[in-house]
Amino acid sequence: MLLGNFKMMKATLFLFLLLSLSYPAKAPGKWELVKEQDGIKMYNRPSERSKFNDIKVEAEFPGTVQQIAEILLDVPKYTEWAYATKSSVIVKKISNTELIYYSEIDVPWPANNRDFYAHCKATFDSSTHSMKLISVSIKNYQPEKKNIVRLAFSRGTWNITTAPNKKIRIEYFLELDPGGSVPAWLLNLFSTKGPMETFLNLKQKMVGLNK
């Protein structure tokens, strides 16, 4: 009798664990439009892993998937268009579409600059003329530098598809934990001004390539 009860308890516990794994403890919130400028829409929602909101950006630019792929994989030139990027260098080139890079983000005083190492990989689908690029931070790739705060986590996902009239459609997602002490003004810088300025600069580059 005791053995039977023990087996039943084990089966019940196993079922409970299985259900716990099947359903996340916290479902993601709904995306909320927070800013729209020059055809670029920016949304955010509460993050599951950070006090910093997740970000989504939707945009449509002139040009081709190949053109924007060349821009996104040209890491040293991030300083020309990625907001507040002080430096950006390739640390290891794995292939023409995969690499590890380092970047430092310029943050206004009195906060400290942020930096990160990231693994970046692009995959292409020739049948749909689309591309997906994912860039994920590697927190302990190298020791932290003095007076620079290492990002606790970042993951950027670019979904780029071919649209009519010689345009591309971009859907970009960013999950970010800036690390360290983060005042409200700095959160706003990362969550609103930074992404919008980046996409406005990126649009300008694509327009310039397709005049």
Entry summary:
The chain has 3 helices and 10 strands; from the N terminus they run H-E-E-E-H-E-E-E-E-E-E-E-H. It has helices at 2-22, 65-72, 184-209, and strands at residues 32-37, 40-45, 54-62, 85-95, 98-105, 113-125, 130-137, 148-150, 153-163, 167-177.
Name a few traits of the molecule.
211 residues, alpha+beta, Alpha-D-Glucose-1,6-Bisphosphate, Chain A, domain 4, disordered N terminus
Describe this protein's structure.
Helices cover 26% and strands 41% of the residues. Strands 1, 2, 3, 4, 5, 6, 7, 8, 9 and 10 form a ten-stranded mixed β-sheet that branches. A hairpin with a 2-residue loop joins strand 4 and strand 5.
Q: CATH superfamily membership, which one? A: START domain
How helix-rich are the residues, as a percent range? 25-40%
Order of helices and strands: HEEEHEEEEEEEH
What would you say the CATH architecture is? 2-Layer Sandwich
Per CATH, the class reads: Alpha Beta
β-sheet strand percentage: 35-45%
Backbone CA Rg: 21 Å
> Could you say how many structural domains there are in total?
1
* Assembly level: single chain
The beta-strand count equals 10
How many individual helices?
3
Largest sheet: 10 strands, mixed
State the end-to-end CA separation: 82 Å
Helix-strand makeup class: alpha+beta
Shape summary: globular
Low-confidence stretches: 1-26
**What is the average per-residue confidence, as pLDDT, rounded to a whole number?**
85
| CATH level-3 fold name | Alpha-D-Glucose-1,6-Bisphosphate, Chain A, domain 4
